[in-house]
Amino acid sequence: MPLSSRHLLGLQGVPREDIQLILDTAVTFREVLERPIKKVPTLQGKTVVNLFFENSTRTRISFELAQKRLSADTVNFSASTSSTKKGETFKDTVKNIEAMKVDMIVVRHASAGVPQFLTRISDAHVINAGDGAHEHPTQALLDMYSIREKFGRLEGLKVCIVGDISHSRVALSNIFGLRAMGAEVSLCGPATMIPREIEKLGVKVIYNIDQAIRENDVLNVLRIQLERQAGGLFPSLREYHNYFGITSERLEKNGKDIVILHPGPINRGVEISSEVADGPYQIILDQVTNGVAVRMAVLYLLGTLNKADGR
Description:
This protein is of the alpha/beta class and 311 residues long. Helices cover 38% and strands 14% of the residues. The longest helix has 20 residues, at 284-303. The two termini are 14 Å apart.
């Protein structure tokens, strides 16, 4: 069965079957990445535009590699050198790009809702690579893939998302995706960084990091987003690290064999210590590798859809 939608805008409301299909398809592409020739002709003749209005290293390179591994033609758009700097509207920019006959658009933007807007002005398949503090679906999918690869399942696992929940699009997509797959999700961080009434999404809120470590199988540790003024929500970086930082001493004290994830980039010595970031508990670099496979799966499943398929 194909995906139920022509686009990947977020994981809210996405059926469990769609997530399962993406994760299972990613297994095949993960094997491709281990071959001497890491390329398949699956999307040969398709054109994908990476429309990034925010800085990015991992996500942009991961998508570009995924597209090249699938033999798609890739076009990278840079907002800093585009006609938007000359006053061109976002809509006109997209319309001009679409007139060049592109098949898919991968978009990252500081404003929530831009991917949804794109679907109204473009016939291309749209993939959300992060919109404001809304969602970042492929990051959550690669997180889930990495957890499933480690444990062999998602159903019944206890996963705690730690840190700057209020500013995090990664957190929201993980909440929707993990709960759809049957995992138990909790959140941990300073009260100033936990959105009000977030429990309505079916998650548990914990304000003590030691309790979070003891009660969970996985910690997904988020970056403190200083560029979004997150630093004003606690007294100091040292204070944050003292109360919520993941350190080897803290893990040993709680005697828990736990798996550590981090979407990157890492603020070493703030949300996580270097010993943990480089230690045996973490699967951070596995996430990066798995991200290419997961994005290959998403591109493949959308790129091979007929326009009559999905919504």
